[in-house]
Amino acid sequence: MRSIGYLLTHYDVLGAFGVNLQLTAWSVLFSLVLGIILVLLRICPVRSLRLFATGFVNLFQNLPLTIVMVFLLLGAFVQLRFQFSSNFSTNFFWFAVTGLSLYTSAFVCESIRSGINTVPLGQAEAARSLGLGFFQSATLVILPQAVRGSVAPLGNTLIALLKNSTVASAAAVSTETSSLMNTMIQYNASSIVSVFLIFALGYVILIIPIGLLTTWLSNKLAVRR
Amino acid sequence: MTDSPRTSSANMPQTGSTTVQSATTKKKLGPVLVQLQHVNKWYGDLHVLKDVNLTVRKGEVVVMLGPSGSGKSTTCRTINRLERIDSGTILIDGKKLPQEGKALQKLRQSVGMVFQSYNLFAHLTILDNVTLAPRHVLHMPKDQAQKEALELLHRVGVDGQAQKYPAQLSGGQQQRVAIARALAMHPQVMLFDEPTSALDPEMVGEVLNVMTDLAHQGMTMICVTHEMGFARHVADRIVFMADGRVLESESPEEFFEHPKTERAREFQSKILGH
Ligand SMILES: Nc1ncnc2c1ncn2[C@@H]1O[C@H](COP(=O)(O)OP(=O)(O)OP(=O)(O)O)[C@@H](O)[C@H]1O
Ligand SMILES: [Mg+2]
Fold first, then answer.
1. Which residues line ligand 1 (CB under 6 A)?
2. Dihedral sign from CA coordinates of B258, B259, B260, B266
């Protein structure tokens, strides 16, 4: 049986996690932006926009991520011949980011919406009575408080995103953790426990700080009433 | 703008025609500023405002009294369209209250509102609470908005708290900041919906003092309150509501000395009786 030390020095474990982290970072960015747009649509006064956002969120919350990825690859890439880049792995990297962002934005939207429920109705009434319009009330008064109230569920969404990045990359990106794990197990079958340990540990190392950070942030940012 | 409206009943006009000339003093009232005409509102099957008519002139201080559930808050909230009405007309400065959109926002700027639960923006400092609307709605430069805000905070007696957050202030201080925040938009009329009801008794006075000063400075005010001292001495007119109707609209002296309706007598004996 090969030692963990051997495995770590002979395979680019750090590099694989690096790709995963990049995938996660871009997806965090896009899913936050898209999630905030979705939540604005879900509470806006225009009925058709509300319906659209509700449909979008329900769809992506209920579809398994693998299905989203497969649809994206089969639909956009194979059928529509859409490419982000002619470079094979760059192209698939951005497909993975797209799928993850679409999927995660639905959960970001719902996390923030749970935060909105913690903001008393009087805050919106005060904003309106001062002459602020819907968009100003939402972005200056409601969302800043809602986001502070939803740091914990947002943190969980983020952790799920990090784990999901392996799923997305399994479907799209060639050089990353899950396929590296496959390769390592293939060639080091006797060390399967060590291989799993390395990857499990890798995720624990990534996820624990996120958990600690969100707990800390959640307390620090909490809106005192 | 005027002398203290507090007068003895000796120099009271004996008529009930209180809409044009305040009954309490020689206080001159301006043109009609707020007018509700045949306003009706339902919550489902519940008819909460029944043909409400109300005329408020510039500089007038109107206190709305009435038993719980009589529609005082609802009336107040329809005036800046926090509640929509089902029929009737509301005019502010001669202009019909718009239904939606930019025009409504414009009109709301001229109507300041103070709530029972203060509703200060919890994530913003006191200073930012007061400057938010002037900066983003009136597009006032930051330093001018801050200068005006500090003056207003001084005026309501909440100096030196500008960088604190609402939760760090007492209820009375928060409510005075809420008044300053509304005043920062230079409203033509101020609505108060039970501004002192959520306060500890020792803080009621400080808020009423600010409101009294405001009244003396000529602000047009519509106040829902259970503070009878304020109603008696500061109001130019008492509007008494019961079951969604305006039953009386009289000078305070007339209302308290000679209530015309049984409901008003009953209400007064409950409030003042013991
Ligand atoms: N959002 C609502 N939905 C349904 N009914 C409501 C709503 N708000 C108020 N009502 C009802 O409308 C009526 C008038 O309420 P309103 O709050 O205007 O009374 P009020 O005179 O302000 O009473 P209070 O002195 O208790 O504040 C009451 O019967 C109340 O139950
Ligand atoms: Mg009320």
1. B 43, 46, 48, 66, 68-74
2. negative
